[in-house]
Amino acid sequence: MQITVLVADDDAMLRSLLCDIIKKQGYVPVSAVNGRDAVDIFFSRTDISLCILDVMMPLFSGWDVLAEIRRKSDVPVLMLTALGDEQHEIRGMKNGADDYISKPFSYPVLLARIEALLRRVKKQQHEILTAGSITVDMAAHSAAADGRELVLTNKEFQLLVLFMRHPSVVLERDRILEQVWGFDFDGDMRTIDAHIKMLRAKLGTAGNYIRTVRGTGYQFEADDEKKYTD
């Protein structure tokens, strides 16, 4: 499964250099030329595994972008700045940044920081998720229920993983929409309901693990004593 990295920096030369470095490591770079562009790109996609944000960007600063991301996501964020000031580093960490590196930086140091932040992502990609009779192999992008291999669309697979990673949590429809379809999806909530209906049908008896919470969203509970039907 590919790893996509968002690179946001208004310096065209540095942005291009960062994208080249990321490509050489086998990852997929997506570039943003300013803070507003970074926010738009991040929330229009569901596959970004790491964000590299320059602090001093026009329209929205790196701090602004970080704040917007942290409202909805815990994706790893590496902040870049020419301000080699301890106070800025402290501010970044307090605001939810995972790491902080000052310009100019060395190639090996940057790679080491990126790899450290992506370890969590890579671990998740190789997880085997289990809940009740359902098993999901993240590396193989496959799922099974009651011993049957499931044929799922990409969205159905993402929905199942989202539920299995948030057991017993009531997931509101707008959160599901943002996590699976992206922030700027043009459809409506009926899209979620239709996909979940199909997912339940494909899960067979395990489809009862997904409960509708009226007027709110859905809840996943795989405990045999707490299976639900609508």
3D architecture notes:
This protein is an alpha/beta fold. The protein starts with a strand and ends in a 10-residue tail after the last strand. The chain folds into two domains: 4-125, 3-Layer(aba) Sandwich (Rossmann fold), CATH 3.40.50.2300; 128-226, Arc Repressor Mutant, subunit A. Helix 6 (154-164) crosses helix 8 (189-203). Strands 2-1-3-4-5 form a five-stranded parallel sheet, with helices on both faces. The protein contains eight helices and twelve strands.
In short, what is this structure?
The chain has 230 residues and is an alpha/beta fold. It is built from 8 helices and 12 strands.
Q: Overall pLDDT, averaged?
A: 86
CATH topology of the largest domain: Rossmann fold
CATH class of the largest domain: Alpha Beta
Described by the principal axes of the CA atoms, the overall outline is elongated
* Rg, Å, rounded: 20 Å
CATH superfamily of the largest domain: Response regulator
Count of helix runs: 8
Give, in order, the helices and strands. Answer: EHEHEHEHEHEEEEHEHHEE
Query: Helical content, roughly?
Result: 40-55%
CATH architecture of the largest domain: 3-Layer(aba) Sandwich
**Beta content:** 15-25%
| Estimated structural class | alpha/beta
